[in-house]
Amino acid sequence: MKIAAAQIRSVAGDIGKNIEKHLELVAVAVEQRADLIFFPELSLTGYEPTLARELATHQDDPRLDIFQQQSDAHNIIIGVGMPLLSDVGVQDAGVRIDMILFLPQQSRVSYSKQLLHSDELPFFVPGYEQLTLNLPGHTLAPAICFESLQASHSNDAARAGADIYLASVAKSAIGLGKAYSHFPTIAKQHMMTVLMANSVGPSDNFVSAGQSAIWSNRGELVGQLDSQQEGIVMIDTETNQATVTGV
After folding, report:
1. Where are the domains positioned within the chain?
2. Which residues of 219-238 are buried (b: 16+ CB within 10 A; e: fewer)?
3. Tens digits of per-residue pLDDT, 16-59?
4. Which of 11, 22, 41, 232 could pair covalently with 170 via S-S, beta carbons 3.0-4.6 A apart?
5. So what's the pLDDT on residue 193?
6. 112-122 burial, b if ≥16 CB within 10 A, otherwise e?
7. The pTM is what?
């Protein structure tokens, strides 16, 4: 199985432009025969908590149908970041930080970030259920930024049978220091391949520092993008070989 973490520079609040940028990286993943590609936290809006309520939507938003079309046409799972209303169609509902997953020839599903950072509490409400994807030979568990650095989250994912951990993040250089210490530790502890998709460029009141990466189930860093370039880092889970492609 080939799994890709995408590194992207989102345009704050511009969903249309960000969809175009996502599709460029999906095309790269398709060309390399990836089975799954996932993007950083809130990738379709940029990590902009103060804009989240006005941009929040639902997972069946027709603007996102293009991802389902690409998933169906190329037999690839696509995971994108988006703020979603906790109750579809209720304007005063809370807003969640979600990863929407488009599955080939299936209905799309979403995973809501369960553990919020204290800075996020004024803007978002938490999810309450861990999503896992059961694919041939593998079980995948998504995690979104802050929670991916909490041992309780990866412990729960491991107990659910996950052997691949998809960390969708928006991290500064300081946050990356913690990630590069934590992720190889949990990879080795749980025998779990860990992929981190980080954004680059301005995000809220910080700068996302990229360096999206993959750690093997032995805790070894096997692939990494730099701090500026958009692109994908991909692993073949059968060989543990990683490839890096910039755009």
Report:
1. 2-246
2. beebbbbeeeebbbbbbbbe
3. 999 999 999 999 999 999 999 999 999 999 999 999 999 999 99
4. 41
5. 98
6. bbbbbeeebee
7. 0.96
Contacting residues for 192 by C-beta, under 8 A, at least 6 apart: 154, 157, 158, 162, 163, 164, 165, 186, 217
The rounded radius of gyration (Å) of the Cα atoms in the chain is: 16
**Treating both helix axes as pointing N-terminal to C-terminal, what angle do 151-159 and 173-190 enclose, rounded to 10 degrees?**
30
Residue 40 and residue 7 in contact, taking contact as beta carbons nearer than 8 Å: yes
> Following DSSP, what letter does each residue of 4-68 receive, concatenated?
EEEE--PPTT-HHHHHHHHHHHHHHHHHTT-SEEE--TTTTT-S-GGGHHHH-B-TT-GGGHHHH
Which range (44-53, 83-92, 189-198) has the least confidence? 83-92
Pair of tokens at residue 171: 């991290």
Phi-psi label, residue 66: left if phi above 0, alpha if psi -120 to 50, beta otherwise: alpha
What is the dihedral angle through the alpha carbons of 3, 230, 109, 172, rounded to the nearest 10 degrees?
110
Q: What residues form DSSP beta bridges with 82?
A: 98
Cβ atoms of 187 and 194 closer than 8 Å:
yes
- The residue type found at 194 is V
Fold topology of 2-246: Nitrilase/N-carbamoyl-D-aminoacid amidohydrolase (3.60.110)
